[in-house]
Amino acid sequence: MTRYRIAASILSADFARLGEEVCQVADAGADWIHFDVMDNHYVPNLTVGPIVCAALRQHLEREHLDIPLDIHLMVRPVDQIAIEFAKAGAHIISFHPEASDHIDRTLALIRAHGCEAGLAFNPATPLHILNHVMERLDLILMMSVNPGFGGQAFIPEALNKLRAARARIDAYTQHTGREIRLEVDGGVNADNIAAIAMAGADTFVAGSAIFKQPDYRAAIQAMRCALTAAATPFKSVQAGS
Fold first, then answer.
1. Would you say residue 74 has pLDDT above 70?
2. Domain chopping of the chain, boundaries
3. Is 36 a catalytic site residue?
4. Which residue among 39, 138, 185, 202 is the active-site one?
5. For 5-227, CATH number?
6. Is 138 a catalytic residue?
7. CA-CA distance, 96 to 229, in Å (whole number)?
8. Could you tell me if 53 and 89 are in contact, meaning their C-beta atoms sit under 8 angstroms apart?
């Protein structure tokens, strides 16, 4: 059992040697590999597609590394590409409510194709959508930067939004017994991860805080050490479950 998960974002990796980078960060102790999928329409950047996911899945399997692939879709429309990522070996797929005409249907589609489903919230996107879809969710992804580019600074107001999301999750779990993970993405590093955890996050996307450091294992360990100061009362969940 692990309380916190660190998801290494390949957006900050060296794309010229991506397979090697992903294996190194998995060996260094990352819990998940995080894909920031951008289409240059919903957000002003263009990154990777399902073919890269499939290639990395196969590469990890050849190296006997079993690590979940966490897909964050910043694309519109979302349904077909979600299916393609599921077929390519994704484990968790999150999308933005603004990118789907039928949020409940998209969540159901992701789960029907064997993946866990998540909703991603931009800094200014309200949380009221959660009122109607909690039973479909395995993960809530809170953006602590405006999506589109790596290396941005953490937006402090995200802490208040994390607290609000954590309160919703705790109330839902108390009523149903089912856990929903709370992930945060944007500007996470060893200096602020404890405060982010104390606001309620249990899963942390880190890109440049890992891949721009000379020692991936030391970078991940520094974040884990910082998390020891952030003990919180909500129940632990198993990594990759």
1. yes
2. 5-227
3. yes
4. 185
5. 3.20.20.70
6. no
7. 31
8. yes
